[in-house]
């Protein structure tokens, strides 16, 4: 297992992220917003700079996390075209960053999750886009999407049936959404195990918010032991989502970028990075 931090959970300054990552012996950085630029608004020069700065520090780009398909389910030619353009643009930036993966969503749900409708739309969009062999697409288990838990994500993956697409498992989102609250996290993992290519690490306290890693509802040491036993070799990306002295707003969770989101993240993330590194045993 390799450790990464989503950069804007620490700071909008990439230098601050690099300093903290090397201090805790992390292997890479997952890129979201940087220098107060949302991930989908980065330009090629910024991507080149990110890639070079990380390489100079002995770090790698662990993933790229723009808000692809983090929209209502497209219902007309114009919204479908927008989704196609969003994916194409994100793939271009992922390649420029040298990212091994690109996180995508399954559209905001309207009422109860409808993973099959989401899969049908995703299939239609994917047919129109050339996916570089160097970039793995990973569907996130998203709080407000059509795949908030393992069961809905499994249904989506079975319906999509596309070998180019894996799963970014975020069990914290499942609990926070309410759909996986109170469930056995290892049972959730077992259902998705064949598809999991990337993992986001954060710790929810029910549906009230996120807390310091190790103080919430996810038994992360148990999860990490199972991942290790199963030979998981992908990234664990810390997505802190916890701040000392304040709680992220729903808007900040939906659009997690910029100084307003990153504020107070450095100390909180440092604590969680230390804990995660100890659990994984990187030192």
Automatic annotation (TrEMBL):
Record keyword Isomerase present: yes
All copies of domain Xylose isomerase-like TIM barrel, residue ranges: 24-253
Protein name: Sugar phosphate isomerase/epimerase
Highest taxon of source: Bacteria
Keywords for this protein: Isomerase
Any single Pfam family the record assigns to this protein: AP_endonuc_2
Entry-linked InterPro entries: IolE/XylAMocC-like, Xyl_isomerase-like_sf, Xyl_isomerase-like_TIM-brl
A GO MF label: isomerase activity
